[in-house]
Amino acid sequence: MDTDSTNAAESSSAREAIRNLRKRSGLTLKDVSMRTGLTMSTISKLERGRISLSYDKLMLLSKALGVDLPQLLGSAPHGAGGAPAAASPQGGMPGSGRRVVQRAGEGQKVETSGYKHVYLATEFLNKGFTPLVGETHARTMDEFIAEFGDFIRHPGEEFALVLEGAIEFRTEFYAPVLLKTGDSVYFDSGMGHAYLKGADEPCRIVAMCLPRGSDADPVEPLINASERHASQQAEAVPESPRVTRAKARSAK
Questions:
Q1: DSSP string spanning 91-107?
Q2: How far is it, in rounded angstroms, from Cα 146 to Cα 148?
């Protein structure tokens, strides 16, 4: 199977997983809309693969459906020997004895025209934070807004360190800053923010997204720029997100 066919099949698998999880929970589009604050049209487009799967969308849906990110993307995590992975005791607090080793090239990939994310340690459910490696493709805010409609916002805090290239970090409250290899930023992710490509070579970061409180209300609507933008584009058909999955291996 060629790469395009593989990406299409895996993208289909991801959106089918979202739809199947919703139906398995006995939820209608209206129910999910009420839980997330998203329009029914937006949720329908997500299930049909017509809206990009950004981190804030994934968090909204995972909380509304009561699942972890790997399950939402269509790859239920497994432990050693193919056994289902167990949810972490006490949310993964010290003493639970869990460990996962991530090899280069592994992880759960989500790619759109504007960025590529590789989610790490996807075997572990109920993690205290979400680790990922991100590569940005958008070089200007016009390109970023063309996909998301505005800055990205999600409740909590975020840390990012530039692994390669340079990142122009934009927020709604501060002047743009250029982050070079080795530079980092820690910020309130409820503040509108955007990562732009700041060099010709590949520009990659490692990031950690920490929700604001383990008891955050799952039905509280996020101020989600990309969702607002998508709901206003009822007749538009954005590029379908390419979702690929590389199953991570765990070591105990």
A1: GG-TTS-------TT-E
A2: 6
Whether 78 has a pLDDT exceeding 60, the answer reads no
| Digit-coded pLDDT (tens) for 95-106 | 567 788 888 888
Residue 54: both structure tokens together = 């950004």
Run of H or E including 83: none
User: pTM of this prediction?
Assistant: 0.60
Domains of the chain with CATH codes? 3-79+101-246 (2.60.120.10)
Mean pLDDT (the chain, rounded):
74
Q: Scanning the structure block, which residue is given the tokens 């970023």? A: 144
Beta bridge partners of 241: none
What is the residue whose two structure tokens read 């991530």? 102
CA distance 146 to 196: 13
Digit-coded pLDDT (tens) for 106-124: 888 887 777 888 888 887 7
| Residue 209 CA: distances (Å) to CA of 23, 139, 186, 189 | 28, 23, 10, 8
Contacts 24+ apart (CB under 8 A), 176-184: 184/159, 184/160
The confidence score (pLDDT) of residue 126 equals: 74
Identify the pLDDT of residue 14. Answer: 62
Question: Where would I find the H helices in the chain?
Answer: 3-24, 29-36, 40-47, 55-65, 69-72, 141-148, 225-231
Banded pLDDT at 218 (limits 50, 70, 90): very low
Strand partners, 87: 125
Edge-to-edge strand ranges of the sheet holding 193-197:
177-180, 166-171, 193-197
